[in-house]
Amino acid sequence: MDFSGLENLVIEQDGPALVVTVNRPAALNALSQAVVSEFERLVTQLEMAGTDAKWPVRGVIITGGGEKSFVAGADIAEMNAMSPDQALAYGQSMQAVTLRLERLPLPVIAAVNGFALGGGCELAMACDFIYASERASFGQPEVNLGLVPGFGGSVRLQQRVGVGIARELIFTGRRIKVDEALRIGLVNRAFGSVEEMLDAAKATIAEIAEKSPTAVANAKSAMHSMIHLSVEDGLAEEARSFYQAFHTEDSKEGRAAFIEKRSPQWRGR
Ligand code: CO8
Description:
It contains 11 helices and 10 strands. The protein has helices at about 35-50, 75-80, 85-105, 120-125, 155-160, 165-170, 180-185, 195-210, 215-225, 230-245, 250-260; strands at about 10-15, 15-20, 60-65, 70, 110, 115, 130-135, 135-140, 175, 190.
């Protein structure tokens, strides 16, 4: 993998986990155009590596650098200098990144260590699930700027927490703390410290790394593609995905290992 030349994203591998830290603490890690283009490069690399059996990474953790913030949103100072067309292009480029994160064959965990506001909350929701430290807070404060969410928040917040709560949060721009984020189901798990949160995210990826990479990739792909479907269409999609998984070598190995009472040897295909 070639992660050279990234200035705003710090990439560290720890066993099967790739930890991506958005690192512009002086601007609370706001998603400047430079950060967005670095995310484009990152996802391109991750798409190319995919589930390559020779690459040890089995999951990605996204977190924020510094003491205060995960990501405090789009870069408001940069946005202020944009024409409406430039702002549209900026919004669409980060929207594309969020879609590509959702389509990666690897699980992606947001480890929210502080402010996850606007584009920061939207980045977290483009991850498969969210862990949070006690300092985390969430919100879509675009109304305070006379704006609306632009990196997917209008869609994904409704999916994550339901239409009523999503509308209340977006119409008020209110910031919520971890206990409320847990209660409404935005956050899976909360931790007393950032270190505990990152350790738990790495442990979850290590747990997932014990499973067949193809099965995990198939499950992620199927669950993302069926999220908008009716129950009937979702069941058809699930049947298609199950049929595809049933043909993989890993599935044959998993079933044989169970019957032979041994640990499976995954091949990633
Ligand atoms: N963009 C740029 N700079 C920022 C941002 C941001 N989003 N947030 C904070 N900063 C900067 C501040 O300007 C400040 O810089 P400086 O020290 O040079 O003055 C530095 O970070 C520290 O910030 P504060 O002094 O404000 O720190 P506080 O602890 O007092 O406050 C807050 C922290 C509450 C997070 C506050 O900074 C804040 O409200 N930030 C803005 C949060 C926000 O509104 N986010 C949403 C932005 S809009 C968005 O994300 C829409 C995405 C879709 C765009 C689509 C385009 C079409």
